[in-house]
Amino acid sequence: MTEALTPDAPVISDVSGAAGQTPESPVAGGVPLSPEDVQTAVHAIADRSRKAARRMGQANRAWKDRALRAIGTALQERRKHVLEANAKDVAAGRANGTSAALLDRLTLTPARIDGLVAALENLAGLPDPVGNVVRGQTLPNGLRLRQVNVPMGVVAAIYEARPNVTVDIAGLALKSGNAVILRGGSAAANTNEALVQILREALDSVGLPADAVQTVDQYGREGANVLMRARGRVDVLIPRGGRDLIQTVVTNSAVPVIETGEGNVHIFIDESASEEMAVDILLNAKTQRPSVCNTVETLLVHSGSTVLPAVAAALRSAGVTLHVDERIAAALGKDVETVPADDDDWATEYMDLDLAVAMVDNLDDAVNHIRKWTTGHTEAILTNNLANAERFIAEIDSAAVIVNASTRFTDGGELGLGAEVGISTQKLHARGPMGLTELTTTKWIVQGEGQIRS
């Protein structure tokens, strides 16, 4: 049998918060835990993760792939249990007035569970990054050098209302030889509890340490705070969520952070772009799943383009509210319903069926607008002008730059990386979709035959 979720830690009583959600103030035996108690418990979890990480780092690919497939099988077999737990979280979120976008991210469906299982199978089919030789050479003195990928060790993730992340990050961490500590937030407490239990039992069933997947959800916000301060126990921390969550982690963490950024994503339609392509791509980029970070939030249209009426009409028919500048409003007239835009709109990651729209006179204006308002996530140009495409690629400094395709492709699964930890908007170590390799670091191996330095 697998171990309890948090052995050697204070037992959390079955006390519920509002609408059945896990309380943010942890209790043991009906008595609130002190910050010191929470610190002791979280440090114990991290220490067990460190021990599990050493075993995971020695597991070969076949062993890790068996674990991933065991998790997928368990998710299928216990699908009803997961969906029932998720329904409780969704009902609580709806009762608490959670926005439609957040409810969408919170919701698991049979199709989304199938997607998680498919992602795990895809991960199992990918090469093991551990041991990959990044570079190597033999020096004139005969020393043989190799720089190889090795696991990070203990990876922590703090995220909100995204139960799919529980499986995605765990799968990536395990395949790359790491242990993972999860803080998924109270909004998805029931779902995450069910998923973590499945993950741990699947690991145990193939002889890998259950403690390679642990959670601090039962310790609430203070547990997350302790996790952020656990430098030396946790090797890297990855936040996923809205701007407030990410900036809180970046600002307060003593553990090294890989910053996944908010997605104020732009698409620029230049004057050469075709109407059919523009309509299809904008509908996909805005409406296919508006609550995710690679959804387009601002559309820039060249003043010489003729596609605006068709694009605007298609978006409005799909239920998108258009927040437009004066030139767009004048160009559309009364044929398409719009609302006025201001600077807040250019800076907003709506994550909903809203889109800011501005008119620009040339590529320079589009680039300048993007540079002013971008979060460095994903930007796209729709064009049949090769020179414009090349300039856009060269002059836009974001994690992903796309030509003539939907911004929705910026994720690990669509780009062939399997699942993803998140989309990094920083420039150190990892940038863009973070897959297996991004959860490894490197180690130098130097082999000699008695050489000494002169």
- Strand count: 18
Could you tell me how far the N terminus lies from the C terminus, measured between alpha carbons in angstroms? 58 Å
Which regions contain 5 or more consecutive residues with pLDDT less than 50? 1-23
Largest sheet: 7 strands, parallel
Class by SSE composition: alpha/beta
Structural Rg: 24 Å
The gross shape turns out to be globular
Strand order of the largest sheet: 12-11-13-10-9-14-15
The tally of helices reads 15
Mean pLDDT: 90
Please give the share of residues in helix. 40-55%
The portion of residues forming beta strands comes to 15-25%
Describe this structure as you would to a colleague.
Residues 1-33 are annotated as: Disordered. It catalyses: L-glutamate 5-semialdehyde + phosphate + NADP(+) = L-glutamyl 5-phosphate + NADPH + H(+). Mean pLDDT is 90; it is low at 1-23. The chain is globular and about 70 Å long. It has 15 helices and 18 strands. The strands form five sheets. The chain has a seven-stranded parallel beta sheet, with helices on both faces. 41% of the residues lie in helices and 18% in strands. The termini are far apart.
